[in-house]
């Protein structure tokens, strides 16, 4: 999209925000963490970011979604996110789906599906009934980052 000065401005759509989540996932990759990233958006503005920090924090619950949720709650001074969207590079696990359920988040948008551990694929009712789910946004990029991480590990 061009503005009046002829500069190209990236439209803030699902792909834009998923690219921001991929930036977070890259931070995890660089720190030798499983590269999953998340951003939480309200009114087309990022209010929170997170990436996996399980190894660094020695905490099995330090998933990107949990870190982003905690940041969003602190930023807003609220415990619910009924007007927010989370963009996450990999389908949330059952634990993260539970946290998303309790947050009452409006929308979950994820990149790559996780057939082994995905809480949405395996357990359809783990999210709040009003939560809208959209998947496969930049799925190849999201999956590629994770695959490259595990190739590097071998």
TrEMBL record:
Molecular function via GO: tRNA-specific adenosine-34 deaminase activity; zinc ion binding
Enzyme Commission code: 3.5.4.33
Keyword Zinc tagged: yes
Residues of the CMP/dCMP-type deaminase domain: 12-122
Family: Belongs to the cytidine and deoxycytidylate deaminase family. ADAT2 subfamily.
Subunit relationships: Homodimer.
Name the UniProt record assigns to this protein: tRNA-specific adenosine deaminase
Protein source organism: Hanamia caeni
């Amino acid at each position: 999209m061009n503005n009046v000065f002829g500069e190209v401005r990236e439209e803030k759509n699902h792909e834009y925000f998923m690219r921001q989540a991929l930036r977070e996932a890259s931070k995890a990759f660089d720190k030798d963490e499983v590269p999953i990233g998340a951003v939480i958006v309200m009114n087309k503005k990022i209010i929170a970011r997170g990436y996996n920090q399980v190894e660094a924090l020695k905490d099995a619950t330090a998933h990107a979604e949990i870190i982003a949720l905690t940041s969003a709650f602190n930023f807003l001074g609220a415990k619910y996110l009924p007007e927010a969207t989370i963009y996450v590079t990999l389908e949330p696990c059952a634990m993260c789906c539970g946290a998303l359920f309790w947050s009452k988040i409006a929308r979950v948008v994820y990149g790559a599906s996780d057939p082994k551990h995905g809480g949405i694929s395996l357990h359809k009712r783990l999210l709040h009934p009003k939560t809208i789910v959209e998947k496969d946004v930049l799925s190849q990029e999201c999956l590629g980052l994770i695959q490259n991480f595990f190739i590097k590990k071998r």
